[in-house]
Amino acid sequence: MPFLTALVLSVGVLCLVDLVLTVGVIRRLRAHEEMLSARPAGLPSIVLPPGAVIGGFSATSTDGVHVSDETLTETVLVGVFSPDCSACHERLPQFAEHARSFPGGRGNVLAVLVGTEEEMADERRMLEPVALVLIEEYGTGLTKALQVRGFPSLALVDEHRRVVASGTTLEDLDKIPAHA
Q1: What separation in angstroms does the CA of 100 have from each of 109, 148, 165?
Q2: Going by C-beta distance under 8 Å and a sequence separation of 6 or more, which residues neighbour residue 176?
Q3: Are strands 66-68 and 76-81 parallel, antiparallel or unpaired?
Q4: Where in the chain are the domains?
Q5: Cα dist from 113 to 61, 128, 153, whole Å
Q6: How would you class 107 by CB atoms within 10 Å of its CB: exposed for 0-12, middle for 13-18, buried for 19 or more?
Q7: Among 49, 73, 128, 138, which one is least packed by beta carbons within 10 Å?
Q8: Fold category of 58-174 in CATH
Q9: 145 with 55: CB under 8 angstroms?
Q10: Predicted model pTM
Q11: How many CB atoms lie within 10 A of CB 58?
Q12: What GO annotations for molecular function exist for this entry (predicted)?
């Protein structure tokens, strides 16, 4: 009988310890939830978000084709890349492959290379067969129109200059909002 009494008391003490620990964990979770809800909704986007309208721009591609906000007649795929961006070097081949099968072909794909002709020579050779390539300085032309704040920046822009989807990966472009 003393053995059973000791066992029941041990189980009771164990349950009380478990209850105290559970209450402590719940309090910590509530504190974390309050901290998370006090933060801004999300990190600032590095390119215009879906639904935004791009600014005006005018540029000439490396092969002499004039491109502007006025020439957008269909949805276009836009990729903005920089020479000193490791993520750009990883995603550029994926972008080129995606551009190869993009509806409307090469004329509906704009690849913006931010830098000098010499810095972007390899990227230009890779992209010219599948996209209209624009080489420009940061903060001008299409980078200004899309309000690019980081690299790589990808976007789908419709004929009304409205961003349909945007992000840093091709997967982000697959997440088209319901209101788009």
Answers
A1: 9, 24, 19
A2: 50, 156, 164, 165
A3: unpaired
A4: 1-39, 58-174
A5: 11, 11, 11
A6: middle
A7: 73
A8: Glutaredoxin (3.40.30)
A9: yes
A10: 0.74
A11: 13
A12: isomerase activity
